[in-house]
Automatic annotation (TrEMBL), chains A, B, C, D:
<feature type="domain" description="Xylose isomerase-like TIM barrel">
    <location>
        <begin position="100"/>
        <end position="291"/>
    </location>
</feature>
<dbReference type="InterPro" id="IPR013451">
    <property type="entry name" value="L_rhamnose_iso"/>
</dbReference>
<dbReference type="InterPro" id="IPR013022">
    <property type="entry name" value="Xyl_isomerase-like_TIM-brl"/>
</dbReference>
<protein>
    <submittedName>
        <fullName>L-rhamnose catabolism isomerase</fullName>
    </submittedName>
</protein>
<dbReference type="InterPro" id="IPR050337">
    <property type="entry name" value="L-rhamnose_isomerase"/>
</dbReference>
<dbReference type="InterPro" id="IPR036237">
    <property type="entry name" value="Xyl_isomerase-like_sf"/>
</dbReference>
<dbReference type="GO" id="GO:0016853">
    <property type="term" value="F:isomerase activity"/>
</dbReference>
<keyword id="KW-0413">Isomerase</keyword>
<dbReference type="Pfam" id="PF01261">
    <property type="entry name" value="AP_endonuc_2"/>
</dbReference>
<keyword id="KW-0464">Manganese</keyword>
<keyword id="KW-0479">Metal-binding</keyword>
Length: 429, 429, 429, 429
């Protein structure tokens, strides 16, 4: 194992925090005991929670207006894996990385896999990219990829997805995430129904190539990069497509890909009902697909999503096995810091959702005691589970305060010395 | 036939307009001929277009803040039918009325049917109402109807729907529209999945009672009267429900029931694909379910909806047979004037959609000539088909300018003398 | 003093809670001491926080679709005051009531004032109502009030506001809140500029009648009851009007009256800058003017609003003296329970905002340490101040858990026996 | 004059269209005569309408996900001017170009000015750019420009704007447009009030450097590139800033920079009232700042904006003198074709707004004849003014159908041969 952050440093950091964390953890335990919650059981549950990190997330993001690079940004997938290893070392709930192709293509995937293992991480779902053109790509995706009017372009996009599956097999992945930018910018540009049929046809070819134990995650998005229509614009179209393709196809929920005011936790409930919930791309937003840090804008919404997930798990919902990933664009923060903080935020909401007194909640729901039902959720949300999360990290060898430990380590400065700065440019994902 | 508006008055009104209308119609014909459109064929197609009027639409609407009554408002369903007869007499494209129960309950439905026939209208889909309580109703819908946690309330709501089907059979209806206000105002109030299962269970009982040649229209709505969640919040949930219930169940699209920015014409295309499009409740909105007059805020959107419908019809989409209805709340206009104007607006968009050069459009779409594809739609939308619509009305015995003829008739004043004024109050639908 | 809830009952309720509350309060104090917060100072600050209750808030609300009455609803302003007294008795942070005319008109305002004093409450801002017609009102507000095209209607609306000021003087109020429903439902219905000029002209007459120590609160709203345009649709128009009228005119922020995605805390900051912040109508919403319970949908947003307010107070912002009021519609809960819970929620956010380490925050802001700035707010928001709020209530004679104590008192049942039930109806505010 | 499109080609193109255009123009004239509109007067008015083209608009745009370059894209400002010359040659209503610095910096502005004159265009407002970093720029705008916490960065941004004024003087500009990307991505990142004060302070330095006959256009935007807050997020903040700066500062309205559902035409009316309307950046959008072609999504909204503008002009609104510019991002069309089509679309809405029967409209408004007021606008909007616009272009030497003539000219192919293709990349404005 290649530990990027000195173990001694973490140990000292934790030693300093231990007394405080232990005291707060005990106090929390006493408070929860009054609510008949066994904190040790809770701790074990929360400790098993894991969320994947996207390989592209450790680079600095941007907008169509500009990208302002950070220091020591990763140059290639090996650097990205190394950064993801740092995150996992400190937070201990991000054991896998989700790669993106062709960006993360290498000549030797066994080497990449060993590199990841050495950094303490494995591979999650593979992601294809047909929303931008690559140098030397024969045909352009300017007017679509899997849904392009031209069969040749569709074939090229299908082939790329098949290659992603192939790479994924070598990396130990078990899922392919398909998000495409296809859509239109003008009324009339695309024939909605024929375009959707081409989507289904292309995806059927990809679906047929999936190994038996793989899943295909269909990701919907309301707008951007297309601004009048997108092919899979909402969970309704996503559901239709997943139903048509078959049992391995499921619907992914990205928190930022919905219309304003949408009740996302309701969509989660519906997909659980339909046995079609693939999982999540976590982030937060105020306006559109802002790709802000998870829980930074509306933490209660994130809690409500987990309230649905915990309920589904505890009631034994059929075929319920969602995959979790962070998918954020870090334009003004150190991506490692943002991803660590976000992983902990997601974990926090999971822990709070576990605290909901579901027996009481059910009784309130069934008797229409609306106010007490609402307050039952609020009681769980008000609970500050910080010491619980710290305790879990410390027991697993992570850091009581990941950002402080990370800053103390000087990792970013070291990387800035090794990895050359990129110039200013317009934005990427 | 009981003609409310004096036929002589209409004839004179039309005689005054005839020269102008004929000239403009001929000019339009020449312009369209240059685009290879046969105006006579077009006229026949447009003349067959029909849109239903809701019985509740002829009363003055309101908001939760106030209802400002109009003059001569209908007192009961017989008055409403009479007003609908006036609309049909003048615009000639609103041959049916959609009744709402229990509001429109009478003791003798044969009498009601004959009354309608006498006024030149028939009956469209019947609508149940479980979103408000009626006097002497045993159980309240305050916390839900078809999805209520209590089985007794659900049974009452089911029974009401079964009664609506029964009444509908007597009136010659062929469809039941189910829109419910069930939802929640607080996170935690309702268990989303159990609530949805109750929805399906209750509706299955209703579905099973439908005659073989009937349809069940499921209507989704994002919010209001429930403000945190609604059971059928979008077309995705509506589709899931319709799929579960069976082939007679279809999804109704009300133009005002969507999230901000939603691409409604795309939803139309998806429901056509899924063979689940029930039809429309036409209205317009700027903010929420504003229930404004069709096409008054965004006429191009209404045109784009019809663009999908005409395309589906012309390409022979399977099981495509949508039902059209106006569903508006007239708070500051004479409802008869608004309904006449709106019916003509809907008809206008249908005519414009028929004008789209679909051969050219397909070629532009297939070759990614985006600008020309967009302009092909715009050319149709820019065409002022007013004389065509006037000609159709005049040939059918309606009025060249329905609002002018209606005002000239003094109908509203006569009704104000007969029908007593209601006092100020807070709002209704 | 007429205590509606038996003091002995509250004392016993608190005695039962005392050990737990004291322990949790001490623990919280120790945790906060580590952050250099003196809990006793904090307690004194929070204990001084007060938020007004609207007289109409203790009745059950409704929508345009239905109103489902509750049990024992207040019949008139004396009943309303009594209910408000119960709220204040139990939560101890709602010492004033904001009356609404003509709904709350009585023949003897000294009697009303004494009635309020007897129930432990005083009067806050008076509210005029020109958004609905009253029986025997000479002219209708159907097409506007203060902005009506007809000078007679405007004069009537002005006169009503002058009367409100008069009543307010008798009740000890110091402010008039002017919210009107004026707007339009169709493009073209109103001439925007002339309508606005009429608004200014009418309000100038009202403004001129204000006592020297009064304020005029202008309330903007994006839509409803008007659905295409409203005269004071946003804070920009509100600001323009307040600037034109003079220093006594200020802009009120209702949390539910904004466009989707609006950053409300930014508007607060701008109004503080402009020295024009009147205060707040607190509630929460997911879609429009949902009037849901404060903090029930997005508690972090409420915290962010208070973050601006505490910052303005602590930095000595000029002419900063906002008025706080709850303004919610309770359709499915007991209004007394909702108002008590909401008052505590607002108080909670105030306390959390006081916990923000502003010295640290400023340093992070000035050095662009974005992540730590964000985390500084989050640390305060994560703090569960429940025991602090309980301690404050208990020390002031309120209840540790207001809803439990209220339910134990049987107050609602007693009122249901005295106050007759109203029938089902369509909705009110 | 350097005519890029062969005059003979245009003449032949027009000759082919002449008979049809003349016939349709005459017919339109007869129809309008019945409404008491003198088509010749109308033609003269419309012929004087002009809208500027932004220099950056002739390049292909992109998103943060990708930019798909077009053929023959302009390499520098001289190429851009040449493309703008083509647009003006064919549509004859885009006589000026709005340059953007530092993108359009050259060593000799007299040469640039002569180049523009040679291509038949002049210069409009100059635009500064502090939303992206340039190579060799000493300080970064990553965390803000005119509002940056660091005085050095602010000074750099101010200096850049002063340089823009300087360049503008050389080019004959009379206005500076200031749009900045400053804002924040996290609650807490920026102190809203201090940030706004820095905005005012920086802009005061720029304002003070403006020549006496110049204007400063302040442009607000709700979000993007900042995703939690922006400094000038709406017209309220823009107004506050313009009021503070002085009479030369005015508020620019970009159609895509508003919250969902915003009534933009109302904002126009308010800015006219406040005498602070700078002008427009025309485009269209469905979701956010989509920068789609003007009128492509909601043409009626564009008409309603012009309805306000024509009304303001005809009623002699004080200090009313708006500047018009297209500001679109052309991702999937030939930018020249999109700009020509958009210029004509804007001109079309202006012409339609001139057709509104304002005497009738005023009467309907004053008598609350809502339906007829709405229909009065609709009558104008339904009028197909295509032949009028064609006639105006032909008389001015432009093309009856600019896109057809442009395609026939082979200009793009010629440029593709001269100007080298750029590779695929992520997006720009």
């Amino acid at each position: 194992m290649t530990q990027q952050i000195n173990g001694q440093l973490i140990a000292e950091h934790n030693a300093q925090a231990a007394a405080r964390v232990n005291l707060d953890y005990e106090t929390l335990g006493e408070q929860l005991a009054r609510r008949n919650v066994d904190t040790h059981v809770l701790k074990d549950q929360v400790a098993r929670f894991a969320v994947a990190v996207p390989s592209w997330g450790v680079g600095t993001g941007g907008t169509r207006f500009a990208r302002f690079p950070g220091l020591g940004e990763p140059r290639h997938v090996f650097d990205k894996i190394q950064d993801c290893g740092v995150i996992q070392q400190l937070v201990r709930c991000t054991p896998t990385v989700s790669p993106h192709f062709p960006w993360d293509k290498v000549s030797d995937y066994q080497e990449l896999r060993q590199h990841a293992e050495a950094h303490g991480v494995g591979f999650d779902a593979v992601n294809s990219n047909t929303f931008s053109d690559q140098k030397d790509q024969p045909l352009s995706y300017k007017f679509g990829s899997l849904t392009h009017a031209d069969a040749g372009v569709r074939a090229q996009a299908v082939a790329h997805n098949l290659e992603c599956i192939d790479i994924g097999k070598q990396l130990g992945s078990k899922a392919l995430t398909v998000w495409i930018g296809d859509g239109s910018n003008f009324p009339g540009q695309s024939h909605f129904r024929r375009q959707f049929e081409r989507y289904l046809d292309s995806n059927r070819q990809i679906y047929d190539a999936l190994p038996a134990d793989w899943r295909m995650f269909l990701e919907h998005k309301m707008f951007e990069p297309a601004f009048y229509s997108t092919v899979i614009q909402d969970w309704g179209s996503s559901l239709l497509a997943a139903q048509t393709l078959g049992p391995k196809a499921r619907c992914l929920v990205d928190l930022g890909h919905h219309a304003p005011n949408t009740n996302i936790e309701m969509i989660v409930a519906r997909l659980v009902h339909a046995r079609k919930l693939a999982g999540f791309h976590f982030n937060d937003s105020k306006y559109g697909d802002d790709d802000l840090d998870s829980g930074s804008i509306n933490p209660f919404q994130l809690f409500l999503v987990f309230n649905e997930l915990v309920d589904a798990a505890q009631t034994g919902a059929a075929e319920f096995d969602p995959a979790y990933m962070l998918d954020q664009s870090h334009n003004v923060t150190d991506p490692i810091e943002s991803l660590m903080t976000s992983a902990v935020t997601v974990q926090r909401c999971y822990a709070q959702a576990l605290l909901v007194d579901r027996t009481a909640l059910t009784a309130y729901q069934d008797s229409n005691d609306v106010l007490m039902a609402a307050q039952t959720l609020k009681q769980a949300f008000h609970t500050d589970v910080t010491p619980l999360l710290q305790k879990i990290r410390m027991e697993a060898g992570g850091a009581a305060d990941p950002v402080l430990a990370y800053r103390a380590s000087g990792y970013r400065k070291q990387m800035a010395a090794i990895r050359p700065a990129s110039g200013p440019s317009s934005g990427i994902v």
